[in-house]
Specification:
451 residues, alpha+beta, three-stranded antiparallel beta sheet
Length: 451
Protein backbone atom coordinates (compact mmCIF):
# COMPACT_ATOMS: atom_id res chain seq x y z
CA UNK A 1 0.00 0.00 0.00
CA UNK A 2 1.32 3.45 -0.89
CA UNK A 3 1.84 6.06 1.81
CA UNK A 4 -0.79 8.31 0.26
CA UNK A 5 -3.44 5.59 0.35
CA UNK A 6 -2.54 4.66 3.91
CA UNK A 7 -2.71 8.32 4.95
CA UNK A 8 -6.20 8.67 3.44
CA UNK A 9 -7.33 5.49 5.21
CA UNK A 10 -6.12 6.82 8.54
CA UNK A 11 -7.65 10.24 7.90
CA UNK A 12 -11.11 8.85 7.10
CA UNK A 13 -10.98 6.74 10.27
CA UNK A 14 -11.12 9.87 12.45
CA UNK A 15 -14.23 11.51 13.86
CA UNK A 16 -13.09 15.02 12.93
CA UNK A 17 -12.17 14.86 9.24
CA UNK A 18 -15.60 14.33 7.63
CA UNK A 19 -17.40 16.77 10.00
CA UNK A 20 -14.76 19.38 9.17
CA UNK A 21 -15.45 18.91 5.47
CA UNK A 22 -19.17 19.39 6.13
CA UNK A 23 -18.48 22.60 8.07
CA UNK A 24 -16.44 23.97 5.17
CA UNK A 25 -19.19 22.97 2.72
CA UNK A 26 -21.80 24.62 4.95
CA UNK A 27 -19.83 27.87 4.99
CA UNK A 28 -19.35 27.89 1.22
CA UNK A 29 -23.01 26.98 0.64
CA UNK A 30 -24.09 29.89 2.84
CA UNK A 31 -21.80 32.28 0.99
CA UNK A 32 -23.12 30.99 -2.35
CA UNK A 33 -26.80 31.55 -1.52
CA UNK A 34 -26.05 34.95 0.01
CA UNK A 35 -24.36 35.83 -3.26
CA UNK A 36 -27.43 34.67 -5.19
CA UNK A 37 -29.63 36.95 -3.09
CA UNK A 38 -27.22 39.86 -3.32
CA UNK A 39 -26.64 39.81 -7.07
CA UNK A 40 -29.99 38.42 -8.23
CA UNK A 41 -33.58 38.92 -7.11
CA UNK A 42 -34.77 36.15 -4.86
CA UNK A 43 -37.73 34.15 -6.18
CA UNK A 44 -39.06 33.99 -2.58
CA UNK A 45 -39.23 37.71 -1.87
CA UNK A 46 -43.01 37.74 -2.46
CA UNK A 47 -43.72 35.26 0.35
CA UNK A 48 -42.33 36.92 3.46
CA UNK A 49 -45.06 35.69 5.76
CA UNK A 50 -44.48 32.03 4.91
CA UNK A 51 -40.70 32.03 4.65
CA UNK A 52 -40.06 34.60 7.34
CA UNK A 53 -37.83 36.75 5.13
CA UNK A 54 -38.41 39.98 7.00
CA UNK A 55 -35.28 40.81 9.00
CA UNK A 56 -36.58 40.00 12.47
CA UNK A 57 -38.40 36.85 11.35
CA UNK A 58 -35.47 35.59 9.30
CA UNK A 59 -33.12 36.19 12.18
CA UNK A 60 -35.37 34.32 14.61
CA UNK A 61 -35.78 31.35 12.27
CA UNK A 62 -32.07 30.94 11.68
CA UNK A 63 -31.28 31.43 15.37
CA UNK A 64 -33.76 28.72 16.34
CA UNK A 65 -32.41 26.32 13.69
CA UNK A 66 -28.78 26.97 14.66
CA UNK A 67 -29.46 26.60 18.39
CA UNK A 68 -31.51 23.44 17.97
CA UNK A 69 -29.05 21.82 15.57
CA UNK A 70 -26.00 22.42 17.76
CA UNK A 71 -27.93 20.99 20.72
CA UNK A 72 -28.80 17.91 18.69
CA UNK A 73 -25.17 17.66 17.57
CA UNK A 74 -24.10 17.60 21.22
CA UNK A 75 -26.63 14.85 21.89
CA UNK A 76 -25.35 12.86 18.91
CA UNK A 77 -21.77 13.18 20.14
CA UNK A 78 -22.88 11.98 23.58
CA UNK A 79 -24.71 8.98 22.12
CA UNK A 80 -21.62 8.15 20.05
CA UNK A 81 -19.41 8.17 23.14
CA UNK A 82 -21.89 5.95 25.00
CA UNK A 83 -21.96 3.52 22.05
CA UNK A 84 -18.15 3.44 21.96
CA UNK A 85 -17.99 2.74 25.68
CA UNK A 86 -20.61 0.01 25.44
CA UNK A 87 -18.88 -1.65 22.50
CA UNK A 88 -15.52 -1.51 24.28
CA UNK A 89 -16.77 -3.19 27.46
CA UNK A 90 -19.24 -5.60 25.89
CA UNK A 91 -17.21 -6.79 22.90
CA UNK A 92 -13.60 -5.64 22.57
CA UNK A 93 -11.68 -2.34 22.74
CA UNK A 94 -10.09 -3.23 19.39
CA UNK A 95 -13.36 -2.63 17.53
CA UNK A 96 -13.62 1.06 18.53
CA UNK A 97 -12.00 2.27 15.34
CA UNK A 98 -14.74 0.53 13.36
CA UNK A 99 -17.29 2.82 15.03
CA UNK A 100 -15.10 5.87 14.49
CA UNK A 101 -14.71 5.20 10.77
CA UNK A 102 -18.39 4.33 10.34
CA UNK A 103 -19.66 6.41 7.41
CA UNK A 104 -23.13 6.86 8.88
CA UNK A 105 -21.85 8.29 12.17
CA UNK A 106 -19.43 10.63 10.45
CA UNK A 107 -22.03 11.83 7.94
CA UNK A 108 -24.63 12.64 10.62
CA UNK A 109 -22.15 14.50 12.80
CA UNK A 110 -20.87 16.36 9.75
CA UNK A 111 -24.35 17.26 8.50
CA UNK A 112 -25.39 18.71 11.86
CA UNK A 113 -22.32 20.88 12.39
CA UNK A 114 -22.43 21.85 8.70
CA UNK A 115 -26.03 23.09 9.06
CA UNK A 116 -25.01 25.05 12.15
CA UNK A 117 -22.13 26.69 10.25
CA UNK A 118 -24.50 27.53 7.36
CA UNK A 119 -27.01 29.22 9.66
CA UNK A 120 -24.31 31.26 11.42
CA UNK A 121 -22.95 32.54 8.10
CA UNK A 122 -26.38 33.51 6.78
CA UNK A 123 -27.48 34.99 10.11
CA UNK A 124 -24.49 37.32 10.10
CA UNK A 125 -25.57 38.98 6.83
CA UNK A 126 -29.14 39.89 7.79
CA UNK A 127 -29.39 43.66 8.09
CA UNK A 128 -32.30 45.77 9.38
CA UNK A 129 -32.30 49.39 8.15
CA UNK A 130 -34.47 50.78 10.94
CA UNK A 131 -36.68 53.67 9.75
CA UNK A 132 -35.62 53.16 6.14
CA UNK A 133 -36.84 49.75 4.95
CA UNK A 134 -34.84 50.13 1.74
CA UNK A 135 -31.68 49.50 3.73
CA UNK A 136 -32.94 46.09 4.87
CA UNK A 137 -31.10 43.04 3.53
CA UNK A 138 -32.60 39.62 3.97
CA UNK A 139 -31.13 36.75 1.90
CA UNK A 140 -34.50 35.11 1.21
CA UNK A 141 -33.07 32.21 -0.80
CA UNK A 142 -30.48 31.47 1.87
CA UNK A 143 -33.14 31.57 4.60
CA UNK A 144 -35.38 29.26 2.60
CA UNK A 145 -32.61 26.69 2.21
CA UNK A 146 -31.79 27.14 5.88
CA UNK A 147 -35.33 25.99 6.69
CA UNK A 148 -34.89 22.98 4.40
CA UNK A 149 -31.58 22.15 6.06
CA UNK A 150 -33.30 22.36 9.46
CA UNK A 151 -35.76 19.68 8.36
CA UNK A 152 -32.82 17.67 6.99
CA UNK A 153 -31.21 17.88 10.42
CA UNK A 154 -34.31 16.33 11.98
CA UNK A 155 -34.08 13.52 9.43
CA UNK A 156 -30.42 13.00 10.29
CA UNK A 157 -31.30 12.63 13.97
CA UNK A 158 -33.96 10.01 13.23
CA UNK A 159 -31.54 8.10 10.98
CA UNK A 160 -28.77 8.31 13.56
CA UNK A 161 -30.89 6.79 16.34
CA UNK A 162 -31.82 3.90 14.05
CA UNK A 163 -28.23 3.50 12.85
CA UNK A 164 -26.71 3.39 16.33
CA UNK A 165 -29.35 0.94 17.56
CA UNK A 166 -28.45 -1.31 14.62
CA UNK A 167 -24.69 -0.89 14.63
CA UNK A 168 -24.14 -1.82 18.30
CA UNK A 169 -25.73 -5.23 17.76
CA UNK A 170 -23.21 -8.06 17.89
CA UNK A 171 -24.12 -9.40 14.46
CA UNK A 172 -23.69 -6.00 12.83
CA UNK A 173 -20.29 -5.46 14.45
CA UNK A 174 -19.01 -8.89 13.47
CA UNK A 175 -20.33 -8.74 9.91
CA UNK A 176 -18.84 -5.28 9.36
CA UNK A 177 -15.41 -6.51 10.45
CA UNK A 178 -15.77 -9.57 8.20
CA UNK A 179 -16.70 -7.44 5.19
CA UNK A 180 -13.68 -5.15 5.63
CA UNK A 181 -11.35 -8.12 6.20
CA UNK A 182 -12.64 -10.02 3.17
CA UNK A 183 -12.22 -6.92 1.03
CA UNK A 184 -8.61 -6.62 2.18
CA UNK A 185 -7.98 -10.30 1.42
CA UNK A 186 -9.24 -9.86 -2.13
CA UNK A 187 -6.96 -6.86 -2.56
CA UNK A 188 -3.86 -8.49 -1.00
CA UNK A 189 -4.22 -12.14 -2.02
CA UNK A 190 -4.96 -12.59 -5.75
CA UNK A 191 -6.56 -15.92 -6.59
CA UNK A 192 -3.93 -16.74 -9.20
CA UNK A 193 -0.27 -15.99 -8.65
CA UNK A 194 3.06 -17.71 -8.98
CA UNK A 195 4.51 -18.56 -5.61
CA UNK A 196 8.11 -17.69 -4.91
CA UNK A 197 9.88 -19.08 -1.88
CA UNK A 198 13.31 -18.69 -0.32
CA UNK A 199 15.41 -21.71 -1.29
CA UNK A 200 18.84 -22.85 -0.11
CA UNK A 201 20.61 -21.22 -3.04
CA UNK A 202 19.25 -17.80 -2.05
CA UNK A 203 20.28 -18.35 1.56
CA UNK A 204 23.82 -19.17 0.40
CA UNK A 205 23.78 -16.10 -1.84
CA UNK A 206 22.83 -13.87 1.11
CA UNK A 207 25.61 -15.35 3.24
CA UNK A 208 28.13 -14.27 0.61
CA UNK A 209 26.94 -10.64 0.56
CA UNK A 210 27.82 -7.82 2.92
CA UNK A 211 25.00 -6.91 5.29
CA UNK A 212 23.81 -3.59 6.71
CA UNK A 213 20.89 -2.81 8.99
CA UNK A 214 18.15 -0.18 8.93
CA UNK A 215 16.77 0.47 12.40
CA UNK A 216 13.41 1.86 13.47
CA UNK A 217 13.37 5.46 14.68
CA UNK A 218 10.26 4.97 16.84
CA UNK A 219 8.30 2.29 18.67
CA UNK A 220 4.85 1.09 17.60
CA UNK A 221 2.96 -1.16 15.22
CA UNK A 222 3.99 -1.33 11.57
CA UNK A 223 0.86 0.01 9.87
CA UNK A 224 2.19 0.08 6.34
CA UNK A 225 5.22 -0.82 4.26
CA UNK A 226 5.37 0.38 0.67
CA UNK A 227 6.46 -2.83 -1.06
CA UNK A 228 6.59 -1.19 -4.50
CA UNK A 229 8.89 1.57 -3.28
CA UNK A 230 11.15 -0.90 -1.48
CA UNK A 231 11.55 -2.96 -4.65
CA UNK A 232 12.23 0.19 -6.67
CA UNK A 233 14.96 1.31 -4.28
CA UNK A 234 16.49 -2.17 -4.19
CA UNK A 235 16.49 -2.23 -7.99
CA UNK A 236 17.95 1.26 -8.26
CA UNK A 237 20.89 0.55 -5.93
CA UNK A 238 21.28 -3.15 -6.88
CA UNK A 239 20.51 -4.44 -3.39
CA UNK A 240 18.55 -7.23 -1.74
CA UNK A 241 16.31 -6.13 1.12
CA UNK A 242 14.96 -8.37 3.86
CA UNK A 243 12.10 -7.12 6.02
CA UNK A 244 12.51 -7.85 9.74
CA UNK A 245 9.04 -6.65 10.70
CA UNK A 246 5.93 -7.28 8.64
CA UNK A 247 2.78 -5.18 8.67
CA UNK A 248 0.94 -5.62 11.96
CA UNK A 249 3.99 -6.50 14.03
CA UNK A 250 5.26 -4.35 16.88
CA UNK A 251 8.68 -2.78 16.52
CA UNK A 252 10.85 -0.97 19.06
CA UNK A 253 13.02 2.07 18.48
CA UNK A 254 16.57 1.19 17.39
CA UNK A 255 15.68 -2.43 16.59
CA UNK A 256 16.22 -3.63 12.97
CA UNK A 257 13.34 -3.31 10.54
CA UNK A 258 15.31 -4.02 7.35
CA UNK A 259 18.48 -5.86 6.39
CA UNK A 260 20.33 -4.63 3.30
CA UNK A 261 22.54 -6.99 1.27
CA UNK A 262 25.07 -5.85 -1.33
CA UNK A 263 27.58 -7.56 -3.64
CA UNK A 264 30.20 -5.01 -2.62
CA UNK A 265 32.16 -6.47 0.35
CA UNK A 266 33.03 -2.92 1.48
CA UNK A 267 29.51 -1.55 1.13
CA UNK A 268 28.46 1.01 3.71
CA UNK A 269 24.80 1.97 3.87
CA UNK A 270 24.38 5.65 3.07
CA UNK A 271 22.37 7.53 5.70
CA UNK A 272 20.27 9.19 3.01
CA UNK A 273 19.30 5.79 1.55
CA UNK A 274 18.67 4.46 5.05
CA UNK A 275 16.24 7.32 5.64
CA UNK A 276 14.50 6.62 2.31
CA UNK A 277 14.08 2.98 3.29
CA UNK A 278 12.86 3.95 6.74
CA UNK A 279 10.27 6.29 5.23
CA UNK A 280 8.65 3.41 3.35
CA UNK A 281 7.43 2.23 6.76
CA UNK A 282 4.63 3.86 8.71
CA UNK A 283 4.59 3.12 12.41
CA UNK A 284 1.69 4.00 14.72
CA UNK A 285 0.26 3.13 18.11
CA UNK A 286 -2.49 0.85 16.77
CA UNK A 287 -3.08 -1.81 14.11
CA UNK A 288 -5.35 -1.48 11.10
CA UNK A 289 -6.99 -4.06 8.84
CA UNK A 290 -5.53 -2.38 5.74
CA UNK A 291 -2.54 -4.52 4.84
CA UNK A 292 -3.00 -6.57 8.02
CA UNK A 293 -5.65 -9.24 7.48
CA UNK A 294 -4.70 -10.91 10.75
CA UNK A 295 -6.02 -7.90 12.69
CA UNK A 296 -9.48 -8.40 11.19
CA UNK A 297 -9.44 -12.00 12.41
CA UNK A 298 -8.07 -10.84 15.76
CA UNK A 299 -11.03 -8.52 16.33
CA UNK A 300 -13.63 -11.22 15.68
CA UNK A 301 -11.72 -13.73 17.82
CA UNK A 302 -11.65 -11.19 20.66
CA UNK A 303 -15.43 -10.79 20.44
CA UNK A 304 -15.82 -14.59 20.54
CA UNK A 305 -13.51 -14.90 23.56
CA UNK A 306 -15.46 -12.20 25.36
CA UNK A 307 -18.71 -14.03 24.56
CA UNK A 308 -17.29 -17.30 25.90
CA UNK A 309 -16.08 -15.73 29.14
CA UNK A 310 -17.99 -16.78 32.30
CA UNK A 311 -19.12 -13.20 32.88
CA UNK A 312 -20.85 -12.98 29.48
CA UNK A 313 -21.55 -16.62 28.53
CA UNK A 314 -23.12 -15.73 25.18
CA UNK A 315 -22.90 -18.86 23.04
CA UNK A 316 -24.96 -17.38 20.20
CA UNK A 317 -22.47 -14.55 19.68
CA UNK A 318 -19.56 -17.01 19.81
CA UNK A 319 -21.21 -19.19 17.17
CA UNK A 320 -21.81 -16.10 15.02
CA UNK A 321 -18.11 -15.27 15.30
CA UNK A 322 -17.16 -18.78 14.18
CA UNK A 323 -19.52 -18.47 11.19
CA UNK A 324 -17.96 -15.20 10.03
CA UNK A 325 -14.45 -16.46 10.70
CA UNK A 326 -15.29 -19.42 8.49
CA UNK A 327 -16.45 -17.09 5.71
CA UNK A 328 -13.15 -15.18 5.93
CA UNK A 329 -11.12 -18.40 5.93
CA UNK A 330 -13.09 -19.64 2.92
CA UNK A 331 -11.96 -16.51 1.08
CA UNK A 332 -8.37 -17.23 2.12
CA UNK A 333 -8.61 -20.94 1.29
CA UNK A 334 -9.25 -20.15 -2.38
CA UNK A 335 -5.92 -18.33 -2.61
CA UNK A 336 -2.30 -19.42 -2.35
CA UNK A 337 -0.20 -17.85 0.36
CA UNK A 338 1.59 -14.64 -0.54
CA UNK A 339 5.13 -15.16 -1.84
CA UNK A 340 7.98 -14.44 0.53
CA UNK A 341 10.29 -13.36 -2.30
CA UNK A 342 9.78 -10.49 -4.74
CA UNK A 343 12.01 -10.11 -7.79
CA UNK A 344 12.62 -7.41 -10.35
CA UNK A 345 14.23 -7.95 -13.77
CA UNK A 346 14.97 -11.54 -12.88
CA UNK A 347 16.88 -10.68 -9.69
CA UNK A 348 15.73 -11.17 -6.08
CA UNK A 349 15.05 -7.79 -4.51
CA UNK A 350 12.81 -8.10 -1.45
CA UNK A 351 12.41 -10.88 1.12
CA UNK A 352 9.56 -10.70 3.59
CA UNK A 353 7.98 -13.03 6.07
CA UNK A 354 4.35 -13.21 5.02
CA UNK A 355 1.76 -14.99 7.13
CA UNK A 356 0.56 -18.20 5.52
CA UNK A 357 -2.86 -19.86 5.57
CA UNK A 358 -1.75 -21.97 8.54
CA UNK A 359 -1.05 -18.84 10.59
CA UNK A 360 -4.47 -17.39 9.83
CA UNK A 361 -6.13 -20.73 10.59
CA UNK A 362 -4.47 -20.93 14.00
CA UNK A 363 -5.42 -17.34 14.77
CA UNK A 364 -9.04 -17.87 13.73
CA UNK A 365 -9.77 -21.11 15.59
CA UNK A 366 -7.19 -22.09 18.22
CA UNK A 367 -8.00 -19.61 20.98
CA UNK A 368 -11.73 -20.11 20.54
CA UNK A 369 -11.23 -23.89 20.82
CA UNK A 370 -9.12 -23.43 23.95
CA UNK A 371 -11.94 -21.46 25.58
CA UNK A 372 -14.85 -23.56 24.30
CA UNK A 373 -14.55 -26.43 26.77
CA UNK A 374 -17.95 -28.03 27.35
CA UNK A 375 -19.68 -25.82 24.78
CA UNK A 376 -21.26 -28.26 22.35
CA UNK A 377 -22.57 -25.64 19.93
CA UNK A 378 -19.19 -23.96 19.42
CA UNK A 379 -17.32 -27.26 19.08
CA UNK A 380 -19.78 -28.53 16.46
CA UNK A 381 -19.62 -25.26 14.54
CA UNK A 382 -15.82 -25.37 14.46
CA UNK A 383 -15.88 -28.96 13.21
CA UNK A 384 -18.26 -27.85 10.48
CA UNK A 385 -15.88 -25.02 9.54
CA UNK A 386 -12.99 -27.49 9.21
CA UNK A 387 -15.10 -29.69 6.95
CA UNK A 388 -15.96 -26.75 4.66
CA UNK A 389 -12.33 -25.64 4.43
CA UNK A 390 -11.16 -29.20 3.79
CA UNK A 391 -13.43 -29.52 0.78
CA UNK A 392 -12.18 -26.23 -0.65
CA UNK A 393 -8.57 -27.22 -0.05
CA UNK A 394 -8.82 -30.02 -2.61
CA UNK A 395 -9.08 -27.54 -5.48
CA UNK A 396 -6.00 -25.48 -4.47
CA UNK A 397 -3.53 -25.77 -7.39
CA UNK A 398 -0.39 -26.10 -5.22
CA UNK A 399 0.16 -29.64 -3.94
CA UNK A 400 2.66 -28.89 -1.17
CA UNK A 401 0.44 -26.20 0.28
CA UNK A 402 -2.61 -28.46 0.01
CA UNK A 403 -0.87 -31.08 2.14
CA UNK A 404 0.24 -28.53 4.73
CA UNK A 405 -3.25 -27.12 5.06
CA UNK A 406 -4.86 -30.55 5.26
CA UNK A 407 -2.51 -31.62 8.05
CA UNK A 408 -3.38 -28.64 10.21
CA UNK A 409 -7.10 -29.22 9.63
CA UNK A 410 -6.81 -32.84 10.73
CA UNK A 411 -4.89 -31.81 13.83
CA UNK A 412 -7.46 -29.15 14.68
CA UNK A 413 -10.37 -31.59 14.26
CA UNK A 414 -8.74 -34.18 16.53
CA UNK A 415 -7.95 -31.48 19.11
CA UNK A 416 -11.60 -30.43 19.13
CA UNK A 417 -12.69 -34.01 19.69
CA UNK A 418 -10.19 -34.48 22.52
CA UNK A 419 -11.52 -31.28 24.09
CA UNK A 420 -15.07 -32.59 23.81
CA UNK A 421 -14.19 -35.90 25.46
CA UNK A 422 -12.56 -34.20 28.44
CA UNK A 423 -15.01 -31.33 29.01
CA UNK A 424 -18.50 -32.49 27.95
CA UNK A 425 -20.12 -34.29 30.86
CA UNK A 426 -23.50 -35.24 29.41
CA UNK A 427 -23.21 -38.55 27.56
CA UNK A 428 -25.86 -37.56 25.03
CA UNK A 429 -24.03 -34.38 24.10
CA UNK A 430 -20.74 -36.25 23.81
CA UNK A 431 -22.36 -38.85 21.57
CA UNK A 432 -23.63 -36.06 19.31
CA UNK A 433 -20.15 -34.61 18.99
CA UNK A 434 -18.64 -38.07 18.47
CA UNK A 435 -21.00 -38.92 15.63
CA UNK A 436 -20.36 -35.58 13.97
CA UNK A 437 -16.60 -35.93 14.39
CA UNK A 438 -16.65 -39.36 12.77
CA UNK A 439 -18.39 -37.91 9.74
CA UNK A 440 -15.87 -35.06 9.58
CA UNK A 441 -12.99 -37.52 10.00
CA UNK A 442 -14.31 -39.61 7.12
CA UNK A 443 -14.62 -36.51 4.96
CA UNK A 444 -11.07 -35.46 5.85
CA UNK A 445 -9.76 -38.89 4.90
CA UNK A 446 -11.58 -38.76 1.56
CA UNK A 447 -10.22 -35.31 0.84
CA UNK A 448 -6.70 -36.44 1.75
CA UNK A 449 -6.88 -39.11 -0.94
CA UNK A 450 -7.83 -36.45 -3.48
CA UNK A 451 -4.84 -34.23 -2.70
Amino acid sequence: MTKTKNFLNRLTATLWFVPTLFVVCGIFLGVFFIGVDFFFESPFRYLPAFFGVQPSGARDILAVIAGSIITVAGTVFSITIVALTLASTQFSPRILRNFMRDTGNQAVLGALVGIFAYCIVVLRTIREGGVDPSNDFVPSTAVFFGVLLGFAGVGCLIYFIHHVATSIQATSIISQIAVVTTKEIKASFPEHRETAEIDESLKLLLNEKSRSTVRANESGYVQNADITELIRLADQYDLILKMQRRIGQFTIESLPILEVYSDDPNYQLDEKLAEQLRETYEIGNFRTVQGDVAFGLRQIVDVALKALSPSINDTTTAVTCVDYLTSIMVCLAKRPSCPSLHSSKGKPRLILEEQRFEDFFDLAFNQIRQNAGGNVAVILRQLNAINILSVLNVSLPFEDERRERHAIMQLSASSLYELAKTTIRASGDLETVTNYYKRIEGSLSDNKNKI
